[in-house]
Design a protein that fits this description.
Length: about 70
């Protein structure tokens, strides 16, 4: 996963990373917060619909359609 194409949070301007759900691999644990965000194993909650999260203090979460190029 390339870090060159990260988008900016439309609310705070922080870098936005993709959220990965499910049981993470050892590699995913190491990459958490660097080029992906671990979203947890529980799906079907309002938060589990989000596909992106900013690395800012607030940790805003978004669907793919909420982010523009």
């Amino acid at each position: 996963m390339s870090t060159a194409n990260h988008k900016a949070c439309p609310l705070c301007g922080a870098k936005v990373l993709p959220i990965v759900y499910g049981l993470p691999s050892a590699d995913a644990f190491e990459r958490d917060g660097e080029d992906l965000i671990l979203g947890g194993c529980v799906v079907g909650t309002p938060w589990s619909d989000a596909q992106w999260q900013c690395v800012g203090v607030e940790g805003h979460r978004f669907l793919r359609r909420d982010l523009t190029e």
